[in-house]
Amino acid sequence: MCTGHDTAPPSSSSRRGFLFTLGLALNVVAASLVGIPVIGYILGPVRLRSAQAWISLGPLQSFPEGQTRLATYENPFRVAWDGATANIPCWVRRIDSQRFQVFAINCAHLGCPVRWFAQSRLFMCPCHGGVYYEDGSRASGPPPRGLFEYEYRIQEGQLWVRGGQIPTLSEPA
Amino acid sequence: MNIKVWFRSIGHWFEDRTGLGAIVAVPMEHRVPRSTASWAYVFGSATLILFVLQIATGICLALVYIPSPDQAFESLEYLNYQAALGWYLRAVHFWGSNAMVLVMTLHMIQVFLWGAHKHPRELTWVAGVLLFLCTLGMAFTGQIMRWDQDAYWGLGLGASIAARVPFAGPELVHVMLGGPIVASRTLSRFFTLHVFVVPGLLIGLVGLHLWLVLRLGINEWPMPGRLVDRETYRKRYEAEVEKDGVRFFPDAARKDMVGMGVVVLAVLVCAAIFGPNGPNGVPNPTIIDTAPKPDFFFLALYALLALVPPRMEEVILLIGPVVAIGLLLALPFLAGTGEKHWRRRPVAVLGVILIVLTVVTLAALGLIVPWSPVMDAWSGLPTPTRFVKGRTPLELQGALVLQNKQCRNCHALGGEGGQRGPALDDVATRLTQDQLIRQVLQGGGNMPAYGKNLTPAEVNALVAFLKTLRPENQLPARTAMEAGTPGR
Predict the structure, then answer these.
(1) CA triplet A105, B283, A114: central angle to 5 degrees?
(2) ipTM score of the complex?
């Protein structure tokens, strides 16, 4: 074995140096052609604005005036194997015939499911004790804000909301 | 030819062709200080064997488990009730994970107290910290694999935390969940992390960790007053090994072998007696009658999130972990020389005690959850008779209001009910009638205002009842204007 040639850094003018550089370059190209799609694939879900769609919660009659009821919508972006996970609950408060409030189920603190107590007209969270008034505003506990509210509209006798994303502090519903 | 000779000749044949025995013998029989053959030094190898156990059982579970939201739960139920010994493998995997986190923590505390992180083993410690973090990552992602109610809402919790990261919050949530909401891609992502990515990292890091242990030697038993000096340490260590060294295997490894056997048997016994964990509750988000709770590794964090003042929450959630992990990684570079023995390192000992007590206390609180309303206290708990006996109709009406308006979800009466607010057994000794009315109507001090939710008649009755809540022979609360009259 000729150690002098093996240990010295290949000079680019020689044939060996050219092959080394070519080999390196080919592999860098190949690595980026693999790496860029992989990173793009993993980061694919970042696309933000398309994350919501209008979806019906059912006919208006199912929400009596002055009451707050649990409603369910199907995730508009569901896939065949989502199973029951595609059913997203939310709280619908009908103030009068035309005015509604649709609250996300997720507590504004850390996303646990809040429960409605009609007698005391409060939402309570089972995780860390956040409490909200019937209009969704924060009553007590750790939540930094009131309940997240979905945008809604009434069309053809149905109540529609813009849903499909988990509401968080940085992306309220 | 007897059987022993026969085996030996086969062994010789393999050794002649592969030469592996000679390679393995080098690390196995390398010399280590006699003082390292100690019961205090068994936790590292015990963690390693638990990791092997997790890999073996994990592979078996993956033969049946389906990482898809519509079938994950059913496939776990199938493992529990139908697949032959499926329940046992699930149980071993679960108890193995508990044991791995526990034993790894003991290992970490031991090496820290024995000063093993000091020069020249800085990188061994750093690799160990990364192993610890990866193991916690396995614990979290493993909990998601259960795909029950706790897993579903636990992901919501994770998303809510990730969303608070400044600038990149929403993007982080989407990358973590594999989309805008917890769904099939979320489970697939966590499955990939749990089964491919993090175990791969763990195997690599374990290799690095072991290589460093071999290269730099097992930490000798520290002596008070024998200081670590960058110039002299290695020479002194080599001299000690030279003078009074033993072979790692079998001399030093005997106790390790016993330790490994004991922890694995303990896991198997726990698995056989207590069985697998869950899955608890179908992962149907519309069933909201649930109080999600993490596995015990994260109970302390869960409790911390309920107890920190809201305005400090962001800081503790986002900066806390960075500082904590940064400190752990920087530790051998900040305190890499000097005294090794724990007796001469009071700050280190107190630090460990403080951290352990904090984590254990928080985890214990996480089990009791005194800050959570008891969601069914109002409908499920009886009013103790001593609080209704001899009361007027108005006061009894008030007792009903107290029950019907969910007051007991947060306030205990006779030791039963929520602990979010103060117990009401002696509320009349603390608040006067006017103060009671004000507190009920306006709330305050973490109590919602009930002004809009109670009629004047209900408030009247409720306060009349609350005024009766004081132990016998104790004065009711009174303002400075009134003179106290016993028995009034």
Answers:
(1) 20
(2) 0.88
Query: How far lies B19's CA from each of B22, B23, B26, in Å?
Result: 6, 7, 12
Q: Which residue of B has its CA nearest to A51?
A: B180
How far is the C-alpha of B211 from the C-alpha of B203, rounded, in Å?
12
B301 in helix, strand or coil?
Answer: helix
Torsion angle of the four alpha carbons B35, B40, B41, B46, in this order, in degrees rounded to the nearest 10: 150
Q: Do B372 and A128 count as a contact with CB atoms less than 8 A apart?
A: yes
Query: Which of B70, B159, B175 is the closest to A166 by Cβ?
Result: B159
User: In chain A, which residues have their Cβ closer than 8 Å to the Cβ of B455?
Assistant: none
Both tokens of residue A67? 């009451």
Cβ–Cβ contact B87 with A under 8 A: no
Contact with chain B for residue A84, Cβ under 8 A: yes
CB B87 within 8 A of CB B275: yes
Q: Are B315 and B382 in contact (CB under 8 A)?
A: no
What's the pLDDT at B487? 47
* Long-range contacts formed by A92-98: CB under 8 A, 24+ apart: A92/A57, A92/A63, A92/A68, A92/A159, A93/A67, A93/A68, A93/A134, A93/A135, A93/A136, A94/A63, A94/A64, A94/A65, A94/A66, A94/A67, A94/A68, A95/A65, A95/A66, A96/A65, A96/A66, A97/A65, A98/A154
Q: Do the chains contact at A142 and B310, CB–CB below 8 Å?
A: yes
Strands of A152-155's sheet, edge to edge?
A53-59, A158-163, A152-155
3-class DSSP assignment, residue A150: strand
Mean pLDDT, residues A64-74 taken together: 91
Which A residues in the span 13-32 are in contact with B, Cβ-Cβ below 8 Å?
none
Identify the H or E element spanning A56. Answer: strand A53-59
pLDDT band at A12 (very low <50, low <70, confident <90, very high): low
Which candidate, B57, B136, B140, B48, places its Cα nearest to that of B95? Answer: B57
Predicted structure pTM score:
0.90
Phi and psi, residue A83, nearest 5°: 60, -150
Q: At residue B107, what are phi and psi to the nearest 5 degrees?
A: -60, -45
Give the nearest partner residue to A88 out of B282, B285, B292, using CB atoms: B285
Contact A87 B286 (CB under 8 A): yes
Q: In the structure, what pLDDT confidence band is assigned to residue A50 with cuts at 50, 70 and 90?
A: low
Testing the interface with B: which of A123, A125, A162, A168 to mutate, by most B Cβ within 10 A?
A168
Contact between residue B484 and residue B444 where contact means Cβ atoms under 8 Å apart:
no
Among B181, B313, B449, beta carbon nearest to A142: B313
Inform me whether the C-beta atom of residue A145 falls under 8 Å from chain B C-beta atoms: no
Span B65-84, pLDDT tens digits:
999 999 999 999 999 999 99
Q: Which of B70, B171, B283 sits opposite A81 (nearest CB)?
A: B70
Residue with tokens 């499911």: A113
pLDDT, residue B481, reads: 76
Interchain contact B409–A (C-beta under 8 A): yes
Residues B134-168: b if buried by 16+ CB within 10 A, e if exposed: bbebbbbbbbbbbbbbbbbbbbbbbbbbbbbbeee
Yes or no, beta carbons of A128 and B306 under 8 Å apart: yes
Q: Which residue of A has its CA nearest to B304?
A: A128
Domains detected in chain B = 34-230+257-368 (1.20.810.10), 377-466 (1.10.760.10)
